[in-house]
Design goal:
globular; six-stranded mixed sheet; 267 residues
């Protein structure tokens, strides 16, 4: 199976497709999600998720700018950023954050950190986001639209100091709850007691290389189980976004970068 995957990748790589074309091919995935307790006034609310920019050296600022422009064309109500803004140096955030600040959702931009943000320098990444008005949900929840929706976020689960109880301090039984958590596989822990209806994650990049009939060749720790798209987990759902950027080897095959648009429906 590994030899078959290598053969497919090698053939595509000969054309430069996996290094030059697909990594730049921004796609928009549209999902409609029914949320229990969602009030009629929020039926149809639009949330756009962006994840894993990993700015520099593989992801260019131009790709980030095009991502922001395409997102704004969707006219979202909320934009959520699910971590890993940088790759090799935390200072890259000072180039990326000004572009992210050009996002124009009606009700705000909310962010969490990922493992690479911690592995470089989490404090620097936090400073870059804060300097441009991007709110970090660091083990924190915010009640939105006159307390009709709870959006919560936890610190990175692999390398940070996550505190789910602090994130859900504002939880109410009659209010639908969405959780931002960088690594998707922790959905098994978070979605078990019914408090969270939807978890939005990134981290896996979808594997970057997906071979038909085989799936992803390589997946990261804590992204082995829920690695791409929407999954039912207990009483809730988890969605894993394929991300915008790359880690090495800097290739994509059958796994283009993704902007995810969610339309929430009362249900």
């Amino acid at each position: 199976m590994k030899f078959a995957g290598a053969a497919v990748l090698g053939g595509a790589a000969g054309t430069g497709y996996v290094t030059k074309v697909e990594p730049e091919w921004l796609t928009i995935t549209r999902q409609t999600i029914a949320l229990p307790h969602l009030p009629a006034g929020l039926d149809g609310i639009k949330i756009v998720q962006l994840s894993d920019f990993h700015l520099y050296p593989f992801t260019t600022l131009d790709l980030a700018k095009r991502t922001v422009a395409k997102t704004n064309e969707l006219a979202p109500d909320l934009v959520v950023l699910t971590g890993d803004y940088v790759l090799e140096t935390a200072a890259s955030i000072f180039d990326l954050a000004p572009e992210l600040a050009k996002l124009n959702p009606r009700h705000g931009i909310f962010a969490i950190l990922g493992n690479h943000d911690h592995w470089t320098d989490a404090e620097v990444v936090k400073q870059g986001l804060a300097a441009h008005g991007i709110e970090l949900l660091h083990n924190k929840g915010v009640l939105l639209n006159q307390s009709q929706l709870l959006l919560a976020g936890v610190d990175d689960l692999w390398s940070g100091e996550p505190d789910i109880e602090a994130a859900l301090a504002n939880w109410r039984e009659d209010v639908p709850t969405i959780l931002l958590a960088h690594e998707p596989d922790f959905a098994d822990d978070f979605l078990g007691d019914g408090r969270i209806q939807l978890q939005l994650s990134g981290h896996t990049h979808g594997g970057q290389v997906r071979v038909p009939g085989l799936g992803p060749i390589v997946l990261p720790r804590y992204g082995q189980k829920y690695h791409n798209g929407l999954y039912q987990v207990g009483q809730g759902q988890v969605y894993t976004n394929r991300g915008i950027g790359l880690i090495g080897p800097a290739v994509r095959l059958n796994c283009p970068p993704e902007i995810t648009e969610f339309v929430l429906r009362a249900g």
